[in-house]
Amino acid sequence: MAFAAFGSGSAKEHKSPTKSSRIVLALLMPGLVYLGLFFFTPLFSLVVTSLEAPAASGGIGEYEYGFQWQNYVEVVTTYMPQILRSFLYASIATIIALLVSYPLAYFIGVKLRTRPMLQRLMLVLVIAPFFISFLLRTIAWKQIFSDGGALMQFAYSTGLMDKSQHFLGTDAAVIFGLTYNFIPFMTLPLFTTLERFDVRLLEAGSDLYANPAAVFRKITLPLSMPGIISGTLLVFIPIAGDYVNAGQNFLGSSKTSMIGTIVDTEFLQTQNYPIASALSVMLMAVIVALVSLYVRSSGTEDLL
Amino acid sequence: MKRFSIGRLTLPAYSFLAMAFMLIPIVYTIVFSFNDSKQRTNTQWQGFTLDKWLGVCNKQEVCSALGNSIFIGVVSTLIATILGTALAIGLVRYKFKAKALVNLALFLPMATPEVVLGAGLAGLFFNAGVGAGMPTVIIAHVVFCLSFVVVTVKARVQTLDPVLEEAGRDLYANPSQVFWKITFPLLLPGIISAALLSFSLSFDDFIITYFNSGSVETFPKYVYVAAARGVPAEANVIASAVFLAAILIVLATQINGAFKRKRLAKK
Description:
The complex is a heterodimer. By secondary structure, chain A is mainly alpha-helical.
């Protein structure tokens, strides 16, 4: 039993190195083997599938291995709009989420330090959306923004919007939904960083005659970077792969399809596994590139 | 006395407004669980009723989907929590060469878009000739819950003082006693919050489940399919009930924690 073995060693004293390495193995191996089997193998299998060609027998959904790199060319040429749209939506939503979350995280993490009860309550409220179905939250927004809803009726009657215009189904509606759904993933890491922020540095800054803007730019912002970077990753990545918000039954329309929409259709409906896999591999490649940029700048210890 | 100024109020006012905005769809969903909607859809307010709450299982699909989601959530959380706690302890307490690599291997599942993991696993099961069903959903859920368990428990292990375990050993406790009487109870709050997080991730997952569940219906899958023709108020009832239960648990642990800290502060 791995847990029982754990008691015999601590970080400070490892009398016999062989014994401690046995314990490390016992603790880490089950989880790592699991990830190897059900995380890394599927990714590898995606790469293999993405290079498959239709089988000679010609059945739907039947493919065989053949170094069909043209699949990637096909994906890029056919689905360029969806690829660009996914990353554009993700970029805009990430920036808005950062702008909305930063003051909020600053307020909870720095200003509310003197009131721990209120601070805890606000934190619970930040994560509250996690506890109610993601799909129903999105459907709630859909109904709030529906043409017959009070909000749109107000926009129509005041002339803010023309009767022929709709909010649902537009890029703006999808970006709104994506931003809303992923804001807590930005607020939490920002809060974690700002909570540890030493406010005496601000006083030092103003004592040295820096104006508030300079204090923010030279002290607060650089020290918030770890939170900004991990928040950005945690928001950008899931948004780039999401397709629920952009779905026609949710906030989007046929004009807002994203990478995920295509993977879903190609995989589950047309059973074109190589094309679905090639798109997934491309998306994953972009994400891995982003993560490695992060690792290069901050190391791996802060990742988790 | 601090001088009164509008500027001083901007940040708190903004923060409370932002919070209120975040809560809008939650309030909306809960309010519409009391809607006396006669049709299949639940879009227009038609008066208050408790019928949907009292007769939630009259819509049998909703209730059986909920049952499946709870079962999947409990089993995958159990597996993910055991594997993840072991990983967290190993990562914090021991030095080894491949630590950076292990950290990266644990971060990548969190950084993988759901659609990629969903399609990858579905392809793997398909190629291996394993039909999609309850086991494949559970296997998939453990993958994305595991890393979140590690992060949460790791934070707790880092606050643990190894001296306490040394004291136990000095008093002739054997390794298993040290673990179960000292380490485990001290880690328990972290393990519980990790399990709660894992359960809520599993319970709310749609995309990965959609790719790997075959004919198994879960609550999010039910809502997704129903969205095409109108989601019944019963779905709002379930989501609201789960929300209220979760908030109660979280508030209880927070208040309990605050009291403990106060007692410690007094000593």
